[in-house]
Design goal:
InterPro entries: Glyas_Bleomycin-R_OHBP_Dase (IPR029068), PhnB-like (IPR028973). This protein has about 140 residues and is α/β, with parallel strands linked by helices. Helix content is about 20%, strand content about 35%. It contains two helices and eight strands.
Length: about 140
Amino acid sequence: MASRLNPYLNFPGNAREAMEFYQQVFGGSLRMSTFGEFGAAEPGTADQIMHAMLETDRGFTLMASDLPPGMEHTPGTTISVSVSGDDADEVRRYWERLSEGGVVTMPLEKQMWGDEFGMCTDRFGIPWMVDITPPQG
């Protein structure tokens, strides 16, 4: 397997809900393991997600977990997840789903560099940058 870099998101107890939402947005195969499955559960965490991985037919990979008790959760302070492509209809559908129930910080609009670009924070507090590039050729 070649090396790859994947976004890894942390949630304060709702990783399952978030990852199921992202699977609805992007499709693909979602695998999740709980803390309880590995016998590492602190009280009240057996059903929480120790590791989740969504892999899509488009080559997207998104990983996540619930934070163990006592770890601080401050989403969006240091990272955004970027989605880009030249299939405008597909990328626009991602935008619509991700921004629904969230906050649009920059509308998806034509930019001075020629792409359509927008930014939003989804309902789970994760910031997204969405870019539609003009088809080449």
